[in-house]
Design brief:
The chain is mainly beta. It has a single domain, classed as Neuraminidase (6 Propeller). Helices cover about 0% and strands about 55% of the residues. It has one helix and 30 strands. The strands form seven sheets. Strands 1, 2, 3, 4 and 30 form a five-stranded antiparallel sheet that branches. Strands 25, 26, 27, 28 and 29 form a five-stranded antiparallel sheet that branches. The protein has a four-stranded antiparallel sheet with strand order 5-6-7-8, with no helix packed on it.
Length: about 375
């Protein structure tokens, strides 16, 4: 599945082909040896799958938080239960997810011992490397068509970033592509949306690029294809500030402000459709905004378990779980105030704009070392 939900915004598996979702230090952070991170396996089936990562913090209490400076752990949640994909030796992050009735594919990266980020796909929890480990590489989106696994991402060379499409582990550079952000398959054709070397939005169909109309300089973040072949691409472009919009069959449509709020529409990170309605997730100055058929609604977070100021972001893909539910993932940032202010991110799942925190599922031993753990939820996929 997607490229769901780059929502980074969300990935989804309903009537379109993909679920998934949108840099690095040179030196890998070293693990804290006072505790052990245990990896696990996962299988497919009916449920809600979320890809992201966990970050660790420790301090005397929740008001005196000191970063533990340990690597982030790539994670996947199935129906709210967390599974570690990495053991915490090096930084890692899961950015996209696709699941079906038997298997779960998670895309992201893990640093190697040389400090390079390596694009990776975990199938049912087992890692397969896409990058060569000699330069940074990223997996941004994943979908599966039959026996073929497609991943869109980037390879960062010494002087240039190359948008890349991997098919069954073999990578091919996309012509004149600097950022490959999302991949979908429909009708035997492979679609990749992203930006060319001039930061102009493009859609590659079976490797051939077409400039997307009406946006100028901008970033297409996510592609969803409906059962009837309608193509929807979420994105944004620069026009005296960041302006939100989307493409319907390569024709650009601008999204307006929240009525009465006066806040700009900002960035659009993900799109999904159930055949009748089109949903887009993005941001304004107040936080996440959900558009249903171009009508915007501000998304708030209802729970408040942590001290300090709160902000929240829906930076993953969105999915329609059934006719009445819209699922969105992202994170919440708490400003924890002690001897100094420290921002702690925590992964979120919204159901019909009602937010809840995701449980990282840590053992008592880990909780004793790291009183506060956080992280981000980057993508979501739904198997009905």
């Amino acid at each position: 599945m997607k490229n769901l939900l780059s929502l980074s915004l969300f990935a989804l598996v309903i009537i379109f082909s993909g679920c998934s979702k949108n840099s690095g230090n040179v030196n890998p952070k070293k693990t804290d040896t006072t505790t052990t991170i245990t990896t696990g396996t996962i299988s497919g089936g009916t449920g809600v799958y979320i890809a992201g990562y966990e970050a660790f913090y420790k301090g005397a209490d929740t008001l005196t938080v000191v970063s533990a400076n340990v690597p982030n752990v790539a994670k996947v949640w199935k129906n709210g239960k967390a599974v570690n994909l990495t053991d915490g030796k090096y930084d890692a992050e899961a950015t996209a997810v696709y699941a079906n009735t038997t298997d779960v594919y998670v895309a992201g990266y893990e640093k190697n011992s040389a400090g390079f980020k390596v694009a990776t796909v975990w199938k049912n929890g087992v890692a397969g490397r896409l990058g060569d480990g000699k330069e940074d590489s990223y997996a941004n989106s994943i979908t599966v068509d039959g026996t073929n696994v497609y991943v869109a991402g980037n390879v960062v060379g010494s002087s240039v970033t190359v948008g890349t499409l991997w098919k069954n582990g073999t990578g091919s550079a996309l012509a004149n592509c600097e950022a490959a952000n999302s991949v979908a398959v429909y009708g035997g054709k492979v679609y990749v949306c992203g930006s060319d070397n001039d930061i102009i939005p493009n859609l590659w169909v079976n490797g051939t690029a077409t400039k997307l109309l009406g946006a100028g300089v901008g970033v297409p973040n996510y592609i969803a294809i409906a059962a009837n072949g309608e193509r929807y691409i979420a994105g944004d472009f620069e026009n005296n500030g960041t302006v939100a919009g989307y493409w319907n069959n390569e024709k650009f449509k601008l999204l307006g402000n929240i009525p009465g709020e006066g806040y700009g529409s900002g960035e659009i990170k993900s799109v999904a459709t159930d055949g009748a309605d089109v949903y887009l997730l993005g941001f304004n100055d107040l936080g996440p905004v959900l558009w249903k058929n171009e009508v915007p609604k501000q998304v708030y977070f209802n729970a408040d378990p942590a001290p300090g100021d709160k902000t929240y972001y829906g930076n993953s893909l969105i999915g329609v779980a059934k006719s009445t539910d819209v699922l969105m993932t992202g994170w919440r940032t708490s400003s924890v105030v002690g001897s100094y202010t420290h921002n702690v991110d925590r992964p979120l799942l919204w159901t019909n704009t009602t937010g809840s925190l995701l449980d990282n599922g840590d053992s008592d031993a880990i909780k004793k070392v790291y009183p506060i753990t956080g992280g981000k939820a980057n993508a979501i996929c739904v198997v009905k």
